[in-house]
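With this grant's support, we have paired protein sequences with C-alpha cells. One protein thus recorded is set out beneath this paragraph:

_____
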Amino acid sequence: MHRFAQAVLALLAGAATAAQAQPVTYKFDPTHTWTTWEVRHFGTSTYRGRFDKKEGEVTIDRAAKTGKVEFTVDLTSVDTGVEHLNHHLQEADFFDSEKFPMATFVGEDFRFDGNDVSQVRGQLTLKGKTRPVTLKGTGFNCYENPLLKREVCGGDFSATINRADWGVSFGGPFPVGNEVRLLIEVEAIRQ
C-alpha cells in the first residue's frame, strides 16, 4: 500500500507540473495590427497618421502574470494622407528617419486584470533617445482563429507622450502640440 500511495503522489505531482501554464509566444499579425497617432494642430483640430510597416512579438505567462513585448515601427512608412506632410515628417526636425529609421518599444513590466493584460510598462526608443512609456490596455482577449486554427490574442493599447522628450520638437508646442496620443491595436498569433 505504501508503494501505491507513493505512485499516486508522483502521478499527481507530475499532473500538477504539466497543468502549470508556460510562457507562450505570439507574433504580431501585420494585417490586424495598426499603429496610429494623434496630435493637436493650432489647438483646433487633430492631425492623425499611421505607420504602415511594423512588427513584433509578445511572450505571456498567464499563470505567473508576466510577459515581454518587443515592437518595432518603420518610421519611413508614416502616412498622414498628405504627401507633403509625410515627407516633412521624415526630415531632421521630426523623425530624422534617414539616421533613425526605426522606433522600438520593449516592455517587460506587465499588469493583469484577471487573465487580461491591462498595462505594459517599457522603454520607447525614438530618434536615438530612450524614455519610459506605459501602454494602457483595453479589450484584451484571446480566441481560436477559425482560419488559422491557432490561438490569437490582442487588444487596444494607448499612451500619451511628450514628443519633445525624444527631440521631435518642430512647431511645438504651438502650432503643433507636443502631446501625442499613440494608439496600437494589435492581434498576435500563437507560435
Q: What stands out?
A: The radius of gyration is 21 Å. The chain has one domain: 21-190. The longest strand covers residues 129-145.
